[in-house]
Amino acid sequence: MKKSVTAFLCALVLAASHCSARAENHITFAIPESGFVTLGIFDSAGRLVRALHTLAPTDDFRKGLNGLITEWDGYNDSGGILPSGHYHIRGYLIPEIEVEGVAYHFNDWLSETNAPALAWIEDFAVLPGDVLVISGKTPQGTLFCARHEAGKGFLWSAQIEGVPPVQIAILDRTALLKTSSSWHALALSSGTPSGDEVPPYDPVSVDALTSSGNTAIFAIGNHLEAFPLMDPPLPKPPCTFSSLAASGSTIFGAAEEGVFISQDSSPFQKIPLPIRVTSLSTNDNHTFWFTGAPMSADPAPIVAQSDATGEILRLLSSEPAALLPVLVRALPDFAGFVVLEQSHASQRMRLIRLAEDKGWTTLWERVIQKAPAFGFFNGNIVEDAPLSANKLLRVRLKENPLTGENGEIALSATYGPQGTFLMTEDGLPVVCVSNRTDITRVLMDYGLASSTLRLIQGNGAGAEEFLIHNLDSIIPLNVGGIELP
Fold it and tell me: Is 152 found in the same domain as 214?
């Protein structure tokens, strides 16, 4: 990600007249240049009691002979009447501050257009044109389904009600989704409810599902069901299948007992394959892809293609300590596959094709790394930072040519319903970094330049990194005092 956004933030300087009445206090202040104004009212102890203006363009103010004009009604930020006494008005004038989006961390999907808050992938299907239909969970545990197209990003994302996990079966124009408590049918073109009838089976009873054309096939205990119903009926499986794959009238099923095949409604026959299979996928009537591990004392996980006789046609091995392949989906042209690999803390999805030299070529990969305690360590962004405190960082101010005032300010980062901001130590916002409202963690560090800060923010599904430039162009504004009777 490489983009620039302007900071929506301002600072301001006021020259205020002393007022003896409780009516609105008119405040006139001069600024040395245009920009954004942030202005606060402080009590005699130096506490901020009213953020009078926040990120206000100078054009928003009335103009008088001696400068810009604003008013204060004597109320605090909560709408309460402040007691009598002396109050001080100060703030900052902020020219255009460059906020540069630098990179995404811990979740490669975030760089895609219209990316949902994808924290963990549960299932996926592959359509022609390297189109993916993905189901997964957000950081809050909400289930969703999304359609992704290479070169276009995410075309739609839809929230799914139910209890995880959520599995996908693709019909002609519909994505049929099963959670542990509900069924959903979404239009592949838009992600909206398709209006199609959903299967009549209790989703808890369904052990595995797949599809062939416009028919969904379910493993329910020791029998198979089709929706809509098929004629002739599906053959009875020899055991409870944990994974299914189908193409035309050929059905593959996997269980602890092994892998089985049925063709043209014939009884299931066991394929002599000494592999503990965890997932199946097929696009033709004679071969299938699978993930699993050999039945040996020290098995290494594999992704492989086999024919109906159990002969391994193609093989991709993994190191025992690497991410474990858990789901594979054959490409529609059967010249490769998409595989999902994972550990307890990370996932990787890869699209792999057979190269001309009969080796494998990874065309793309996306990684999700759980990083609930991300932060800075020795200048690097890490998923588990030893210190999580959002420290104050000091930057020098530009001298105000009208008053000669300069100095420095201590800044921290804060987030909330209005977005992510850089705030002064006493609570005045000076830079708007992002307008995202779902942020749950934010941290800062110094950049390479003296006037630059690095900021990372995240919502539990990765983190965004920003560089905030030219902070030494902020000008202090010391307006004066107001006496409330």
Answer: yes
